[in-house]
Every structure is written in structure tokens, then in C-alpha cells.
């Protein structure tokens, strides 16, 4: 059955290694086809305010693979970045999210919702990123004031002057920026001052420990204070329990995202009009 089994090239691998290598080769070949075969999906995870009202969603990419089923982004985004397939894929994500914004804009109850889109460093640093974003906004008629781009600390560190200029140009269009996974990278506090950032997203690894690990608690507390004094909003990522939620509220965090409020879901399965995560009230 396995075509390569009789050949010379793979004979020094043990069967597991061979399987792993072939799986990766296949995954890469499949990823080239994923867009053309319409196998990519966006799931959306709600974000809520201090009253647990939905303020927006984060778009999270999924790959509906014909044999493997739903593949999570951690399993194919690094591959997409190595092969630069992240460029067409990232464009598709942006376009799909903007189309969703334009659909919600027609419904008064949903018109104010924002969509946060993760932008890979390779995508951000491509030659014509600003022009592409403009083109997507124009072709979808999405309101740029409802679009938030999530960037990472490592993205900001590559050519910081150029990054600043691109962010300012997009910011002029009305687009906002959130710094994702805050605390996990090596960002200089100087960036926070110089760049047109709107929000910090505290990484879920720190939220996990707020009740049990004094270091995590101190980092979260310090981040909330820092954000407030810089005039930035702050979102806690990965909130899973009512106890974490309560701790965060007591420490002046006002925006939340996590399984407590909702898992990432296909757009049709979202419950956007309700209060989330408040079991007791
Ligand atoms: P991220 O942007 O930090 O997204 C949050 C991740 O945490 C998502 O994983 C989400 O499903 C997960 N999550 C949310 N709430 C909870 C919770 O309460 N508990 C736990 N344990 N996890 C929670 P997901 O969807 O697997 O995405 C992983 C990463 O892949 C994202 O991290 C983001 O960096 C990247 N990614 C996703 N979609 C895209 C995309 O369209 N483009 C790019 N460039 N990267 C993407
Ligand atoms: Mg994100
Ligand atoms: Mg994150
Ligand atoms: Mg992450």
C-alpha cells in the first residue's frame, strides 16, 4: 500500500519516523489545495465586557480536512508560514471576516460587534499589506472601525520603524490593533508607548494560574495596571472558570474571552445576543 516502502530512500527510518515524515509531506501537499478545495473555515469566539455582554468575536481559523477532520491552527499555521502559504490563507481569513462584518452591519443588534483577526508576521511584512487591507475593506464594504488586527510581540520587533508606519496607516483607516499573547514574548515597553495599540490581550498561560500561582497573579495584576496607565484596554484570554473570572473582575479587568463564555464556533452556532458566563444572576 505505502508506495515508498519498497524504495531505497526511506529504508533507514523506523516505521513511526517514516509515517511522521510522510504525514508531513502529505499535509504540505494538502495545504496547497486547501484554499482551492474550499476546506478552510472560520470559527468565532465571543469576547465579553464586565457585564458579560458580547462586544465582539475573534476569528479563529480551522481546516476541514477531508480525511483528518477538523485540523487546529497550531497544526498547520507554522507549516503555512514556512511555505508562505500563509499569504493567500491570511488574505482569505481577512476577507471572510470582513464579509461577516458587512453582514452584521445590516442588523442593528449586531452592528456594533467587532471582529479580531490574527495577523501573522509574514503577512504583515509583505510588500503591499496596507493596499491589500484597503482593497478587502473596499470590496466587502466592511466598517474598518469594527476590525481589530491581533499582532504579536515578535511581529512588532521586526523592523520596528516600518511596523510603526504600517500600523499608523492602517490606524488612519479606522482599524485598531490588539497585542496578542502579551507577556509571552520579549516586547519592550517602549513599543507600547510608540505604537498605535488599542488593547493588550493577557496570554492564557497567565490566566490559568491567577488563583494558584502568585507569580502568574502578579504578572496579570501588573499588566492590568500597566494597560490602564497607558490608556490601553486589556482582555483576559482563556478564562475557563467562574473563580478566575471573579478574580479578574476584582482586579479591574473589564474584557474577557474564554471557554467560560463560549468556545470558538461556526457563525451559525454563536449566541450573540445573550449574557454569558453568569450562572448565578
Ligand atoms: P490566539 O490568537 O491566542 O487564540 C486563542 C486560542 O486559545 C485559540 O486557539 C482558542 O481556541 C483558545 N482558547 C480560547 N479560550 C480558551 C480557554 O478558555 N481555554 C483554552 N485552553 N484555550 C482557549 P486556536 O483556535 O487553536 O488557535 C491557536 C492560535 O493559532 C491562535 O492563538 C493564533 O495565534 C493562531 N491562529 C488562529 N487563527 C489564525 C489566523 O487566522 N491567522 C493566523 N496567522 N493565526 C491564527
Ligand atoms: Mg489571537
Ligand atoms: Mg492569544
Ligand atoms: Mg496564542
Automatic annotation (TrEMBL):
Keywords in alphabetical order: c-di-GMP, Membrane, Transmembrane, Transmembrane helix
Membrane is among the record's keywords: yes
Transmembrane helix keyword on record: yes
EAL domain sequence ranges: 24-278
Superkingdom to which the source organism belongs: Bacteria
Entry's Gene Ontology molecular function annotations: cyclic-guanylate-specific phosphodiesterase activity
Name of the featured protein: cyclic-guanylate-specific phosphodiesterase
The organism of origin for this protein: Billgrantia endophytica
Residues of the full protein shown: 357 to 637 of 637
Amino acid at each position: 500500500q505505502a508506495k515508498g516502502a519498497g524504495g531505497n530512500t526511506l529504508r533507514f527510518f523506523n516505521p513511526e519516523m517514516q509515517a511522521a515524515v510522510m504525514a508531513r509531506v502529505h499535509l504540505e501537499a494538502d495545504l496547497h489545495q486547501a484554499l482551492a478545495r474550499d476546506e478552510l473555515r472560520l470559527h468565532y469566539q465571543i469576547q465579553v465586557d464586565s457585564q458579560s455582554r458580547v462586544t465582539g468575536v475573534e476569528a479563529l481559523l480551522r481546516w476541514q480536512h477531508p480525511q483528518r477532520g477538523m485540523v487546529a491552527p497550531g497544526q498547520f499555521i507554522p507549516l503555512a508560514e514556512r511555505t508562505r502559504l500563509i499569504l493567500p490563507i491570511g488574505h482569505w481569513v481577512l476577507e471572510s471576516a470582513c464579509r461577516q462584518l458587512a453582514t452584521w452591519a445590516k442588523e442593528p443588534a449586531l452592528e456594533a460587534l467587532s471582529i479580531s483577526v490574527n495577523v501573522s508576521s509574514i503577512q504583515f511584512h509583505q510588500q503591499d499589506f496596507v493596499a491589500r487591507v484597503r482593497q478587502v475593506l473596499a470590496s466587502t464594504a466592511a466598517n474598518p472601525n469594527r476590525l481589530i488586527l491581533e499582532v504579536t510581540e515578535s511581529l512588532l520587533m521586526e523592523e520596528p520603524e516600518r511596523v510603526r508606519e504600517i500600523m499608523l496607516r492602517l490606524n488612519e483607516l479606522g482599524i485598531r490593533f490588539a497585542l496578542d499573547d502579551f507577556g509571552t514574548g520579549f516586547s519592550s515597553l517602549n513599543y507600547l508607548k510608540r505604537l498605535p495599540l488599542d488593547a493588550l490581550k493577557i496570554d492564557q498561560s497567565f490566566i490559568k494560574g491567577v488563583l494558584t500561582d502568585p507569580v502568574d497573579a502578579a504578572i496579570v495584576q501588573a499588566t492590568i495596571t500597566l494597560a490602564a496607565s497607558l490608556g490601553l484596554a486589556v482582555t483576559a484570554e482563556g478564562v475557563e472558570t467562574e473563580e478566575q473570572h471573579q478574580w479578574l473582575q476584582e482586579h479591574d479587568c473589564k474584557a474577557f474571552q474564554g471557554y467560560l463564555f463560549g468556545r470558538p464556533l461556526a457563525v451559525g452556532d454563536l449566541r450573540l445576543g445573550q449574557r454569558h458566563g453568569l450562572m448565578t444572576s
